[in-house]
What does this fold into?
Amino acid sequence: MTCIIGMYYNSGKGALGIADSRTMMGGDFVRGKKIFDLDNEVVFAASGLSGIAEKLVPNVSDARNRLRQFLPSEIVNIFEDEMAELYNRYKMTKPYRFSDSENLLTGIIGFLNEGSPELHCLFENGYAESLHDYHAIGHGARHANNILRTLYTPSLSKDRATEIGVHALVEVSKIDAMVDSCPQIAVLEEGTGTNGLMVLNQTQDGFQFDLPVVKGIKDKLEGIEEKRAQAFHVLLGGTPEVRSKFDEALKEHELTKQQPQNAGPSQQGAGARGKGTAAS
It folds into this structure.
């Protein structure tokens, strides 16, 4: 179960980690924490067996202290090594505890490196890949990636990226019973929170699943969905004059987007996420 999204915004100056909250305990679905904050410097969002995530996160923190590797950029290697240990223990050593088809864990690691956010996708065998724009993992990943492919651009503002991420989770939850519509959100951006990291659900009283900002986004999305259905019927059955006015409105919107203050990213900005092949 689970759907987790990682994406950059503002041409790579910030990044988001967004997860749903559905977990299974015994035979029942419950809400569970899926975004973990390590030492106010690293965020980790896990898809897979909750017990594996609960073992991995403290193992990583302990190894970081033991090895005295405190640079955020060193965290990826630690996650790889600790995940490989769990993988070998539970899937490669007899007696085998899990079948080959069962995924122990896939996760997204996020941190700031010299002021710039980095996102990496961690696989169950202990291998991690850097993300270059956006990526979704978990049970609802395929549908979420299709939605993001349509709506994502590197120049998105933080607010717009958050809206799109919430929208993707809500839409996935409508067709996938293993995913809920209760997002957990982490923000990575220099000057944000502590050391550039803020988990919006984390409060002084604990972990808050229902965020006011998310309710506002959901209300906005419901209004958009109603108008989209109306526009669809207008385009199918409206008169040529009505369709022409609709086309004019779209052209005006495109011209507004092309104004300097909202100009799209340059090719350099769009490809500024490092070398290698983006996970997809």
